[in-house]
Amino acid sequence: MSAGADGGGAAAARSRKGSSAEDGFVPSALGTREHWDAVYERELQTFQEYGDTGEIWFGEESMNRLIKWMQKHKIPLDASVLDIGTGNGVFLVELVAYFTQSSSIQ
Predict the structure, then answer these.
(1) Does the predicted TM-score (pTM) go above 0.85?
(2) Which of 22, 57, 79, 102 lies at a CB distance of 3.0 to 4.6 Å from 87, suitable for a disulfide?
(3) Alpha-carbon torsion 5, 7, 8, 10, what sign?
(4) What are residue 32's phi and psi, to 5 degrees?
(5) Contact between residue 75 and residue 103 where contact means Cβ atoms under 8 Å apart
């Protein structure tokens, strides 16, 4: 019998019967909105209190490498940048600082 023969109903029913503890799988807090809301709130408070931008998720070297790539390819200072899922926004802050400095030099 193929998995789709019953429309997936039997597999879904089996999945609902077993609890997380029974099959050895325990959900992680990392998969919850509450966890990430708390993480971002803590980072925001740390920034407001101490000016600490937090962890640079992909490293300072990665940020510098991307800025050098943008220079090499002559990306205009008024180009749009879409930053999705690459950390806490530190790169965008650095990018604005770079472009602000570059535009005042030119």
Answers:
(1) no
(2) 57
(3) negative
(4) -115, 145
(5) no
